[in-house]
# Entry
Amino acid sequence: MSLETQIAALVAASNSLTAAVNGKIAQVDAKVVALEGAVPNTLKSLLSVAVYVDGQTGDDTNSGSSGSPLKTINAALKRGISGCSISIILKCGQEYRLSGNQYVTNQFITIRPWGNDTKPVISFETKEGGAVDVLSLMACSLRLNGVKLKHPYRDGITSAVTEPLTNGLILAHSSTVSLDYGEIGGSNVRAEIDMGADPKAVFVVADRSMSYLNINTTDITGSAGTVIKLRTNGMATLRVASVSKAAGIEFYPAATVKSNIDVITNS
# Structure
């Protein structure tokens, strides 16, 4: 084989190898582009979550879609990650018990109804001796839309109702809580805004700098004395809300309220 023939063969082999390499590079580039598109979509799905819950037919191992709902709020809360916006959608006409202390950080949480039956009810586990498990929020926004909060009675056990209260349902630190088109009902029910509070009431919003409670078109009933307490740095907005005459709103220094309802203070 002449030198010219060998050189021509080498050039052809080199060209073939170059084409093969370029083909592989193109395949890699295509995969990178696909991954670059998939990552934002994956992150988007993690940061915006909708979870359906049906306490009767659901299962906590399900996907959480409307066709494959979860069974408990506990499991639904675990589907969120820090920084996400999560909607927990409860099947109407059922009561959902939150058992075990739940701790959530840096999430935007909405709990709303699913269906046309009566409002879903959220209650909390009551232990022997009166201790109540709590939902603890840190740097969160919680919106309860069209649901009912129920004081945790079980087997004659109730949480303490004299101060200093030792139990609470929702304890929020540096968080905003909004109640829209809902109910807080039953005796021994309180909603409290308290700077630096421990779990002191059925409903507690606590913050060392600023606490905020928004109540919109919500019926508040009860017979536990003061239903809503606004303590230092506490703020509340009441819109189209009603507070029973048996209840009341109590003010502490530096607390403010904006409302279009009659405010009944305890003497």
Summary: Helices lie at 3-47, 73-77. The chain has two helices and 21 strands. The CA atoms of residues 88 and 111 lie 5 Å apart.
